Amino acid sequence: MKRSLTHYLLYAVVALCGSSFYLQASTLSTTTIGGIQFYNGNFDEVVSLAQQQNKYLFVHTTSGKCVPCFEMSNDLYGDEKAAQYHNNNFINYIMHVDEPEYNDFARMNDLGKEFTVFYYNPGGMMEEIATQNEIQNVETLISKGRQVLQLRTEENWKMLEMLMAKQAKKQELSSDELRTLSYLARTFGKPYNSLVDAYLTSFPIEQRASKENREFIYYFADNLNNNAINNLLTDRDYFNKVYGSAKVNTKIKIAINNTLEWAIKNKRSDIFDKMLAIIDNYPMRDSDLFAYTVRSHYYHGMRDWNNLAKVSIEYIEQYQPTDPILLNQAAERFFDFMGTNASAKDQKRFELGLRWAERSVKIAPECYNNLTIARYYQTLGRCEDAVNAANKCGEIVKYREQNPEKTRDAKTVNMEQKCAIEAINLIDGLRCE
């Protein structure tokens, strides 16, 4: 196999700095920003850690291209009071939304452009999303945290234990007790959907229009597995008026975020259909992109190749997106199914995936999309084109090494190093004259 100079430079660059990738990928390591200790690594592991310690999870999202993500974090997290508060009260996590596993999540929540943080309860359910419009200084950061944790008191914990004990003895709970137990169960990471439904059926339906019950409905419309979301959607004009349409849309997105992986894991097509009906009937900003992301993520998780291909082709051909990550992700998923599903060897679809990958490179010639093209060329037997595309990865890594001011953050460097390693393996795996 003929190798270019860039191919050998790839080995040199990876040998110099590639080991750090394996260190970070193999363990749940920590990083300190300012004075706050953040975990980085697998999100599911961090959720499990929060559950074990019965703590809320504070998620800081960042991207190699998000300048406000770095500026705001440097301004906020270096404050001693903010650091102490978050280290004492939260499991803190860094989510790098450039990583492929978070691409859909980032698109659904419009991440990677501005400072955005998430709050999850100990049960792993997203409760709040806050951007720099809401958190502008240290005072508002701490205030937001206190607002999220306001029910987590020793007195409320004792109340929760008492009500759960009463329920375990099959003693009937009053409407007020069901309401209280619902709030406390969510706050302390216990199952609460059945409690919410029990409370909503414990009084005449006309009473749902009371201020207290509407507040309850809004609070618990955080997933699609209880009836609070149905009541919110039925009464949406009221909630838009009181909370504002932007916050109501965010609440609906939270509900879908909290239910999508559950629907995949439990193979609940009925819940997935409910998501789509909500998106179709209650339009929000970028509904078409949001709907496409939900659909493609679900079908990919379900390994439903035909529907994944259908929604990808329809969306990309109709809207001609210019997001290189979206285009590359669609191309990668096509390649994934073409390579593993014998019934999916459709030449026209394969060529379509290649065109999306090529379009992605024209928009943003990064290592990740050059590597996708290289894989397509390899499969087609176009060895020289595959080597040239793979060598682009080395050129990008080499350039960033020689121009450290262009390197956005350590995580981006690690991702590029991994990409370079995969490019080396692809070139070495080619068998061409």
Characterize the structure shown.
- The chain is of the alpha+beta class and 433 residues long.
- The chain has helices spanning 5-17, 19-26, 43-53, 67-77, 80-89, 103-108, 138-148, 154-168, 175-187, 193-200, 211-220, 228-234, 236-243, 245-265, 269-281, 287-301, 305-319, 324-340, 347-363, 367-380, 383-402, 410-429, and strands spanning 29-33, 36-40, 56-62, 90-96, 116-120, 126-131.
- Among the domains are: 34-151, Glutaredoxin, CATH 3.40.30.10; 153-187 and 191-219, no CATH class; 221-302.
- It has 22 helices and 6 strands.
- The strands form 2 sheets. The protein has a 4-stranded mixed beta sheet with strand order 4-3-5-6, sandwiched between helices.
- α17 packs antiparallel against α18.
- The model is unreliable at 8-26 (pLDDT under 50).
List the helices and strands and how they pair.
Layout (H helix, E strand, L loop, with lengths): L4 H13 L1 H8 L2 E5 L2 E5 L2 H11 L2 E7 L4 H11 L2 H10 E7 L6 H6 L7 E5 L5 E6 L6 H11 L5 H15 L6 H13 L5 H8 L10 H10 L7 H7 L1 H8 L1 H21 L3 H13 L5 H15 L3 H15 L4 H17 L6 H17 L3 H14 L2 H20 L7 H20 L4
Helix pairs in contact: 1-21, 1-22, 5-7, 8-9, 9-10, 11-12, 13-14, 14-15, 15-16, 16-17, 17-18, 18-19, 18-20, 19-20, 20-21, 20-22, 21-22
